[in-house]
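The instructor's notes for this session suggest beginning with a concrete chain rather than abstract definitions. Hand out the sequence below and ask the class to guess, before any prediction is shown, which regions might be ordered.
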Amino acid sequence: MTDNLKNLETAVEGFLFNDATRPTPERIREVIDQFRGVITCCVDDDAAEVLAKRFEERYGVTMAIGSQLRNAQHEPWLDVARSGITPYYWDRYRTLLRQQHFPEPVISTIDQVTDNILGSLEHPHYEGPWDRRGMVVGHVQSGKTANYTALICKAADAGYRVIVVIAGLHNSLRNQTQSRLDRGFVGRDSARLGSRTQDPFVGVGKINQERRPITFTSSIRDFNKASVTVGMSLDDLAEPAIFVIKKHPSSLVNLIDWLRDSNAGRGEHLATLPVLVIDDEADNASINIGRDKVSTINKRIRELLALFKRSCYIAYTATPFANIFIDPDSEDAMFGDDLFPRDFIVSLDPPSNYFGPTRIFLSPESNVLRIITDYDDHLPLSHKKQHPVETLPASLVESLRTFIVARAIRLVRGHHQQHCSMLVNASRFMDVQKQLRNEIHSRVKGISASVRVNGALPEHDAMKDPEMKALRDVWNREYSSLEVEWKDVAAMLNESCAAITVVEVNSSSPGRLDYESQNATGLSVIAVGGFSLSRGLTLEGLMVSYFLRNSKMYDTLMQMGRWFGFRPDYEDLCRVWMPEEAKGWYTHISDSIEELRSEFRSMEASGGTPRDFGLTVRSHPDSLVVTARNKMGTAETVKVSLRYSSRYVETVLLDSSDDSLRHNREVVSTLASNLSEIDEHVSEAEIDDFGFLLRDIPVGIVRSFLATYRNHPGSHRTDFQPLSRYIDERSGQELKTWDVVFTSLRDSHKHKDGLVDHLPGRNINCQRRTTKTDHRPPTTGLWLSSRGRVATRGIEQTGLSDQARQRAEADHRDSLSNPQPTDSKAPPNYPDHVYRKQRKRPLLVVQLVEAMDADGTPLAISGAVVAWGISFPTTQTKEHQEERIVNSQWLLEMNHQASDFTEEEME
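After discussion, reveal the predicted structure:
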């Protein structure tokens, strides 16, 4: 960015910041034109328009208030106490947020949300013992740290004297969290407090230095009781004390021992100091998963809280399928854990510019994903610690070139001083990560050499270099539709390549992601790692991600998504490489989480409590994945909770014996014949997108089909026994009549040489599904989906009236904090659960599937494979929870889990 453009941006920012009204696009351009008359702000029309669009985006960001569940017994206190609170720390932080270009509507929402959370804690000056337990559920990389930094500031203003932040399992994340709290709360660089030559003030410390919290940890050092002044006690301090510690038993024990020692001989003074404990990434390691004894970290957190008679504990997490809600054995035990958020749960909505799962995986206009198909010969998903990395997959080389070209485009846009990052997460083993780092380093240096020698040549001559031609091909494929020309990009390639460093990020690597020290120039880095890149750690300016992992655990997958976050002025450059299977799982998880958040909002509207939400998560079909984690590696059995109201259940796992496949094929023919016999009593119509629909089908025909269909013994959610009980209890009213759809591709969409099945009364163009064989006893299983669902997205709108569809879609749009723009040319992409809420009759989905190998070859099976699904409407009849006893190993494999993190990576 030129000095004049930078000066213009600063001047306009200051003017708009003090403007009383929210700037319109016209007002933004008017102010820019006014300042362009100043000699130091003189820029051309194109640069002025780029700046205007940047301000439009900045001031156009919105953020909804989110949802909250709480117990009604809590006595509100904040509004009454507000007049006696001086918001010193909050005022400093709010000013810093404005300086960091946080949009004013976002700052206002953070203010409101953190007031709600603070008000759900206890008044710090209330006498007598008290403790509160709560949870804040955000989104991955969506600003949770900013939220709890604001909360810490307000809690300190209100009178909380001790603040403990438990921040991640690894030093890199703890250090990053400390640095952010230094800037947002402490006001001093904790790593330079002893320096006499360097200015230690940072962030809020440059705004106001009148008061200073006391930090017992630094951005380079965890808590160490040996370094604390002998005789020092927290009740001697005039300002709040803050500890940012690693989520590790030794760190917790170190702090607990010092707190006990410092309390010796001081009576009740320390014990009665109000303490706020914030547990970041609370679904990771904090949960009690022990059977015969409490697990270590959970035990230490409880010991820490027990030292204080007046305490508040808040768990922050981005994965609502957290173990903290779920005990697989009984409802009572679930609420016996002291860390269960019994008092309140807050669900945060992200700002409208959040680049999250919905935008990446569920939006039809998304152009972010690229599929990896060439990894097997280079880096199989399952490999040993000693696996040699001799060459890079072509897709990884392609992603490296994409990063280089994307960074060149950012330089064309004037982003010279901004961070640019690429992520490579392809192995959990540090030895393999080291090899990958070296190979990538060598390849980047080779590209850089070609660019340095030939990049400045005329295009005709430059294209004689294969590497230069490959870079231009990347631009053609990925970015030629943008506003930049190749000649401008080519002119920046040398600068783009030269600054890139390749860093290995794990517990044994010498390098680290030190963005802070390079704020003046911007850091350009390719980060290669595993677990250390998989949770909490922020990669500044992340543009390109290469993800090649075989974890299927929901929270693990979501936390690995470091590509989620905010991408101001470069969202259109972002690309993510991953296998097709991973794409399917992310799509499924995104749907499931959005469904759970929707239920949370409904609970808030109906006055629900944290207990209600805990039970909902526990009964959610996808919470099986979370339950499985508790029992991984054991031979025990666990109880699986089954509920059907407003759920979609289907046969993903089939009995693949020839006899069962043939039997089920006969069963579906019988169903079609039975429906044909009553055809004069029902209406039949072809549904363009999904197949053949029949309405008002008597429950008896459906029940007969389900009773005679041969279910896989491991498919507990589709077991006829609990299903039939549920249906029979409601067959007189709610489930008296059904809609039935036989899915079939339109003739124009059917696969070349695809399977056509002939049922009585109709021909079915079969959908194709990639399968996986499971040879575990007692019967061979056939998985019909790599993503946990067989049915096509949108199937559950089948049978609804146009009015019901429109109502479902309108309700969904109204519930979103970040809706798709109304001027978008792409059709909206609505999740199935929004249609399910409008159902008055259940929908039976009958699927005849052409089963395919992973390589796209049809399986050697005679005819179609029969699967089914049911979309149940919400019941008005009390539902009796069904439970199934299953082996934990089955749960592990039922949800396609892999034991993802090992000793090598946890070091």
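Then share the key points. The longest strand covers residues 843-852. The first helix runs from residue 3 to 17.
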